[in-house]
Amino acid sequence: MNTNNNVSGESSGGSLIWEDNDFNFFTIIDGKEVFIGRGKDVPYPLEEGDCWSLPNGRTFVYKNRTVKCVVPQNQEKKLKECLEPLYEKFEESYLYSDPLGFVHKFDDPKDIEVAGFIAAGFAFGSVSQILKVINKIDKIVNHEFYEFALNFDIAECSKLFKGFYYRFIKEQDIIILFSILSEMLKKYGSIEKFFMEGYNPSDLNLKNAIISFSERAIKLADFSHVYNGLVVPKDSKAHFFFTSPFNNSPCKRMNLYLRWMIRNSDNLDFGIWPDIQPYQLIMPVDTHIGRISQYIGLTKRKNPSFRMAEEITNNLKKLDHFDPIKYDFAITRLGILNLCPKTKNEESCEKCSIFNVCKLN
Fold first, then answer.
1. SS3 for the chain, per residue?
2. Which structural domain, as residue segments, surrounds residue 16?
3. What is the pTM of this model?
4. Of these four, 8, 90, 201, 346, which has the most CB atoms within 10 Å of its CB?
5. Share of the chain above pLDDT 70, in %
């Protein structure tokens, strides 16, 4: 080899970098001659901290006047190192930016359970609009969600919701919702006990339990006062509160509610359903989670669906098997608080803690 250029010129004991006549750069690492790049691919002249990679994926760093080969992290490790600080950052002080913050106004587990189901059911649209509508419902029920639902009477209580609407949800839809919850509480005592009838502790996740819950719930009440029949019509928006994986719906709001009720490892969720394991939860997928999960490699799917929710969940289990959904609140803040743009923005992106694993980088 014709080593005509001593590029680095360090003293004895430092790294010697040289270039041959074909502009190939070499050095000695652990006593062996190592090819470290060609021509402009090597950031010559080297400065402390310079790092570069070869097309084969081998990466080098220049530190303390020595070139070293960097062992690349696997994707899961890099992702966990980015998501953990995000999880730590977005703790309970950010509850103001989420409908979950509304549910934290209650102390009684019975109210938490029912108010949580209502808040999660209306968790679509902007947070400000969601909070506006659930506060409106709160006034109607006089801040007593459990008692109101338990004693709900269609003939009498329908008057309280006269003219009610939220986007495509109308008064008859919320009347049906409270009718179903009323029957659930009267016959089972709690939403939890009704849900547990379809729960199998050996299931990998709650998919089958959600299917069972929604199918049974929609058949609970007598709807003759609303629809001139005992069955809720298929085109009724009341079905929106009881979505099912059977139709490949992402079931975002149902999975969100279950997260609130089951997780108990921080000050965000309530953990008042102790008999279900957090590792059985499924990621609540909305537009924010779907988009950002694509950015950081949690899913290859383009459109929100239950399959996307399961794929994201399974990838998060590689980071935290026992509590994979703990990252939901934090990742969602990036979208809700407009911290993650839909297109690359240098000013915003470089401040983001997950930019190092983002495909926009």
1. CCCCEECCCCCCCCCCEEECCCCEEEEEECCEEEEEEEHHHCCCCCCCCCEEECCCCCEEEEECCEEEEECCCCHHHHHHHHHHHHHHHCCHHHHHHCCHHHHCCCCCHHHHHHHHHHHHHCCCCCHHHHHHHHHHHHHHCCCCHHHHHHCCCHHHHHHHHCCCEECCEEHHHHHHHHHHHHHHHHHHCCHHHHHHCCCCCCCCCCHHHHHHHHHHHCCCCCCHHHHCCCCCCCCCHHHHHHCCHHHCCCCHHHHHHHHHHHCCCCCCCCCCCCCCCHHHCCCCCCHHHHHHHHHCCCCCCCCCCHHHHHHHHHHHHCCCCCCHHHHHHHHHHHHHCCCCCCCCCHHHHCCCCCHHHCCCC
2. 5-70
3. 0.79
4. 90
5. 90
